[in-house]
Amino acid sequence: HAGKKAFTCNDCSKSFTRKDSLIRHQHIHTGECPFTCKDCSKSFRDKTCLIRHQRIHTGERPFSCADCGKSF
């Protein structure tokens, strides 16, 4: 059923529609940071944060301002 939150955190009772969302959330309680940067060994709770961090090492600036064209 659409929108049914079948996955509930045992620590804080927050509910999620997807199991992977619950697992990612549980890292808050465990302190686990399973995503590690291969360049500097800094660890992150979530893959998206790791990807954003890796831009420090690559110099990638994937976004640009529509007004001035400056990348960030």
Highlighted features:
Double Stranded RNA Binding Domain, flat, repeat, two-stranded antiparallel sheet, alpha+beta, 72 residues, zinc-finger, Znf_C2H2_sf, Znf_C2H2-type, 2 helices, single chain, metal-binding
Describe it for me?
The chain is of the alpha+beta class and 72 residues long. The chain has a domain at 1-32: Double Stranded RNA Binding Domain, CATH 3.30.160. It has two helices and four strands; from the N terminus they run ββαββα. A two-stranded antiparallel ribbon has the order 1-2. A two-stranded antiparallel sheet has the order 3-4. β3 and β4 (43-44) form a beta hairpin. It is flat. The relative contact order is 0.11. The mean pLDDT is 93.
Name the shape in a single word.
flat
In terms of structural class, how would the helical and strand content be classed?
alpha+beta
Overall average pLDDT: 93
**Main beta sheet, described?**
2 strands, antiparallel
Low-confidence stretches: none
Which strands sit side by side, in order, in the main sheet?
A: 1-2
Architecture of one domain, CATH level 2? Answer: 2-Layer Sandwich
Helix and strand sequence? EEHEEH
Radius of gyration: 17 Å
CATH fold node name of one domain: Double Stranded RNA Binding Domain
Report the end-to-end length measured between terminal Cα atoms. Answer: 40 Å
| Relative helix content | 25-40%
Q: Count up the helices.
A: 2
